[in-house]
Amino acid sequence: MVRLYKFTHKAIGLIKDDSNASLENTTVPAEINLPNLTMFSTILFMTEFRQMGMGDSVDVSKTCNMSEWHRRLYTGAAGSTLADSDPYFDVLSLTPKPVAEAGIIYATTRPTDNGKEVFSSFLFAIHKSSIAKTTASTNNGETQQLPTEAEALVSAKGATHIWLCGSDPEQRRHRLMSQCLAQLEQDVLEWKANGQGSGVLTVHTIPRAFPGMVQFLTKNGFVGGDKVFGGDGDKVLYWKVL
User: How far apart are CA 38 and CA 122, in angstroms?
Assistant: First the structure.
């Protein structure tokens, strides 16, 4: 049984249940919370980075920590004036803002033998005011360009950027990331229809280190692959217009 949850700066909600149980008046289990999801991501990335011989616990801790996730859930990619002195401040106490302008997380869970749920995958998307500049990564010097109409929409509304994502290696055959992405695309299309977004999705990845991610993106209609200008190492940009 797979359950799909949505995390925003406003609330946590169950949005899909493979058991076909009613989603109305569903109580979110106590173990489904941001600290546990952050810990899941930390263990996942530390294991993968160690296997690939890149990065260490310090690198992971800079990204997978409650303070950083709280800020991005509330502000997206924008700078924040939120105090760093309290990494566990309650984002629910802050002034609500349109989710299209902030951050959003989709996370799947699986049941355990003791009747509780544990996380099996997640996708963390944030709002960015612009798309990273790129340089040609092909021999002929050609680059992949956004359609003119999409460029104009990004200039006015920004883009939805997949900041972090990952899944339990033992659960990847269940296409959990595809479920998270499908839900994100549904929401992005709704934001676009409501005039809150451009309908453009972007993501950065490193093909040499994450060939599976490149395969996942291209299989789901993303294009690109040009190097991010001024980015770390071999980071490239992929994008999709919805």
Answer: 10
DSSP state of 48: H
Range of the domain at 81: 3-241
The rounded distance, in Å, linking the Cα atoms of 147 and 52 is 36
- Give the domain CATH number at 86: 3.40.630.30
The H or E element containing residue 119 is: strand 117-128
- How many CB atoms within 10 Å of residue 231? 16
Domains held by the chain: number: 1
Q: What does the pLDDT profile of the chain (242 residues) look like in tens digits?
A: 899 999 998 889 999 998 766 677 688 999 999 999 999 999 988 887 776 666 666 677 778 888 888 888 888 776 544 544 455 556 556 677 788 988 999 999 999 999 899 999 999 999 999 998 888 765 455 667 888 898 999 999 999 999 999 999 888 888 999 999 999 999 999 999 999 999 999 999 988 888 889 999 999 999 999 999 876 778 899 999 99
pTM of the predicted model, to two decimals? 0.89
Q: List helix spans (H) across 136-227.
A: 148-157, 176-193, 211-219
- In terms of Cβ atoms closer than 10 Å to its own Cβ (0-12, 13-18, 19+), residue 19 is exposed
